[in-house]
Amino acid sequence: MQKADLTNLKVITGKDLEAALSSGAKEVILRRKAVLTPSAKDVIRDRSLVVSESEAPASSGSSPAVVTGNPTGPIDALFHSPEAVAIKQEIIKVGQKLWLREYVDGNGGNISYRLRDDLVICTPTLCCKGDMTLDDLCLVDLEGRQVAGSRPRTSEILMHLEIYKAVPQAKGVVHAHPPHATAYAITGMVPPACIIPEQEVFVGSVAISPYETPGTKAFAETVVPYAKTHNTILLANHGVVCWADTVTHAEWYLEVVDTYCRTLMLASQLGTPVTRIPDKKAADLLELKKKMGLPDARYEMKECQLCDQPEFPGGITVCPRNCPNDCGDKKGTCIRKDPDVEALVQTITDEVVRALRLLK
What are phi and psi of 329, to 5 degrees? Predict the structure, then answer.
């Protein structure tokens, strides 16, 4: 069993223990009467770390943990392989794009990539996405245990891992707080469909998951019901998460959905209803999307359900000719009436007729 000698430290933090674990240590040796911070105690408990005590060295200082034995194993070799380095560079580039586009601020957002079926490279906690370096990135297994990297992994990696477990084709996940899409998320709304082709093909219908405290297991599990049929999920009162076959493509979906939401907001200021893509044309876009292998919850829907048509004045929704809903209208135009609106119209009609009779 590899051991990390920390007897040169008088105070042990969670970061010290995480650094030892990321180097392959399974046991740490602490000096007698060393002070453990609350974060260190959490790491020992959560990671089932073996702890032993020894006398302090003759000359103590505050140098980093040194792992005895051979710290270079197959996982460490994979983490520093040319393939992994290329992925890390892509993650760093995507982080810079997120920061430049103001999709993240402070240390917000997180990025990950499934390097192997059971191993995921991810960004660290408390790190600006515009300032990351290769040494900042971490490697975790599908249970969230960090197996490589000197900085502690992001707490929100649990959400990424739930997506990877639910969607085998997901390789890259990006979570950020793009302002226009997040505006929808904090109002509990999803943007309407069938307005801009790029949104329909690359993102499509958007889901919104219920609110839970970020970084928790409960929060991570909120995306599970939507991940298979949506590559873009609004996180209530929080932000947006996207998955794709690469980290770069996941970031593209963030750009598409945020631009779409911004365009809708601008259009709403014109005072005129937006024009929807006709249902038949929307079905063509959906067919193109299916050929590209992208997910969409609407694949099994009937044609006149695709665009989530708004009600026309009078509570009437009109579907295209030859509506597949078997509405019974032989002319091919499906008319669904709101009974409350119909009752109101009838009452008004009766009053008008009565008033006209009084005038005679």
Answer: -85, 110
Q: DSSP string covering 321-344, please?
A: SS-TT--S-TTS--EEE-HHHHHH
Residue 128 has pLDDT above 90, yes or no: yes
Farthest-apart Cα atoms in the chain, separation? 114
Kindly report the CATH number that applies to the domain delimited by 76-268.
3.40.225.10
**Which amino acid is located at 247 in the chain?**
V
Write down the catalytic residue from 18, 90, 156, 200: 156
The pLDDT assigned to 242 comes to 98
Q: Distance (Å, rounded) from C-alpha 54 to C-alpha 311?
A: 75
Q: Give me the mean pLDDT over the 110-122 stretch.
A: 96
Q: How far is it, in rounded angstroms, from Cα 211 to Cα 232?
A: 16
Taken as a whole, the chain contains a residue count of: 360
Neighbours of 120 (CB within 10 A): 25
Contact 193, 308 (CB under 8 A): yes
Q: Minimal CA–CA distance to 220: which of 205, 237, 235, 207?
A: 235
- Active-site residue flag, 156: yes
Distances (CA, A) of 88 to 74, 116, 151, 164, 354: 18, 14, 14, 18, 77
Outline which parts of the chain fall under CATH 3.40.225.10: 76-268
Of 253, 182, 120, the closest CA to residue 111 belongs to 120
Provide the pLDDT confidence category of residue 177 given band limits of 50, 70 and 90: very high
Check: CB of residue 248 under 8 Å from CB of residue 172.
yes
Q: Does pLDDT of 325 surpass 60?
A: no
Asked if pLDDT for residue 321 goes beyond 60, the answer is no
Which secondary structure element, helix H or strand E, spans residue 141, and what is its range? strand 138-141
